[in-house]
Structure formats: C-alpha cells, structure tokens
Amino acid sequence: MNNKDRKIFWETLTSLTGQNIPEECRKLTETIKYPKKLYRFRKADTNSLEAMRTNRLFFSSAEYYDDPFDSFCSINWNTVENGILNALLNPQNLNQLALLLNIPEARLSQFFSFRSIEDWTTLGTNIIDTTRKEIQKRHRSICFTEKDLNEVLWLKYADNHYGFALMYNITPEMVTRPQNAEMPFSHPNYSLYPVYYSNQTYDATDYARFVAIDSALKNYHPDFRKMIYSILPSQCWQYERVCLIKHKCHEYDKEWRILHNDLEGNGSKFITFKPSGVIIGLRTKKPTRDLIVALAREAGIPKIYECFVDNNNKLNKRIVKES
Asked: Are the CB atoms for 43 and 163 separated by under 8 Å?
C-alpha cells in the first residue's frame, strides 16, 4: 500500500464509532490492500533463531520498540488529570451512576470512604507519571514490512546486514483470527493492519485518560470500575488508532502490524506461522549462515535465499544452493 492508500485506511479508521463492530470491521477491511508477502527483519541471536526454528511470532510491547516516540500522538495531560479527578470525585457523577444502576448513593460513597480528597489528588498525579509507560506496555504487536531489499531496514532491524529476514505469504489466517469470547473492545483476537505515516499527530488524550483511570482503578471492586467506565467516552478503535500512526519520516519502513487485542495482557504471547522463506544477510558470517540454513530446514521453511550485490550495484537476493 502506498501512503495514499494508507491515508484512506486511516481516515476510515478514525471515522469509526464502535456502534456496529462487525460492520465497521468489514468497512475497514475493504480499505486494506494486502500485499502478497510481508517480511520481518531479525538479528541472528538465540531468541530470534529459536523463534524461526519453531515458526513462532512473538508479540512485543511498545516499551521495547527502537523508537521511544513510536506512536505519533499528542496528549493533553492536564485534561487527563482533570478527567481522573472528575471521574472519581465528582458528586454529580456519583449521583447519576446511583440512579442509572439503581444502587443507593450512600453505598457508592463507601468506595471512597477510606481515602481523602488529598489522597485521590496525589494518586491522580502519580498515575499521570506512569501513564505513558502504561500505554506503551499495552501496545502488543508484531511488525513487518513490504520491502525485503531495503538497505536501511537491513541496517536498522537486521544488525547491519549480519542478521536475516523472514518471508511470509499473506493468508486469511494471518490477516485476522476471531476471538472465542467477548472482549472489552469487541474486536478479533488479532488483526493485520498497515501503519499510516503523517506529519500531523493524532490526539490520544481520551485514550490516555482512559488508561490513567483504568490504572487507578485496578485494585477496586469490579462493580465500581464498571460504573466509572460507563461515564467515560467510548474507547472503541482508540487502541488501533494509537498503534497505527507514525511520523512521516518513517515512511520508508512500509510497515504492517499484527495487533493483539488482549488489553489485559493475559493472552497468548506468540502466534505460529511458518515462513515461506528466509533471506540471509549480506554480511552474515559463515557459522551463523550455516546455522540459519540448518534451522530453516528443520523448521520446514521451503525457500532459503542469500543477499548479494548485483551487477547494477543493487542489493538483491538469490536461492541458496543445496550443499
């Protein structure tokens, strides 16, 4: 997908309201032009080699990405802090919740009885300090690119050409996997999406406020959490929006991501897909090269390539001959 196509995808994503999830999933999918293949660059270390041998793709959280500003979002932290205090302390909200749920207001007040206003204010400030990291921790994805011979990507993600790249054919099973049980955001368990590149940030203030409040309520009664969530704006599709926008300077990545929608972090840490090929880096040393070949064959990967510089002085790849 070129960035014009990605912009159409992004504009569709940001227009979704969460009112009809199946229809919105269908609408969003129609804007995605899936490539035939995607590639995943890896350093030739123990973890990456074992993942290749076992055909596993591990989800990473954004806190471990190479770019600390990975999601190109803006957040109004004053609004977030005010939102926390308003949700937790506003008597009018408490009264409305009591009427809505037919629960005596005095009973709801008991949830607050052991904390003073000062305690709640301090708690809100502390939550703000950790919300950015919490947002990154919740973003679990597997990253790919459309480009297998991009020299910058080999430098950046494959250990300066000493690593390798895995090739994947795009199949329906790789695009999305339905969930077995209803989850908070009512999306499939995971889905494959393109990343959109822009010079304009996405305003993630509402999402940050939700994460901050959710963090503040982790140890409270589920009924109380449910009541607070009912007065917050819907967060449907916010997770995808925050995860799928990057600054335009990264456009050369041509990135795609499988997003995991297990926001509580209790689900699978990996998925299993067999690559259709592996590409060995231009500078990969012979012992490592031989190990990659052996493990790829053990994993049942059908095609093994090696990089070389062709007669036009361009990075290219060719099939590794059987020894």
From this structure: yes
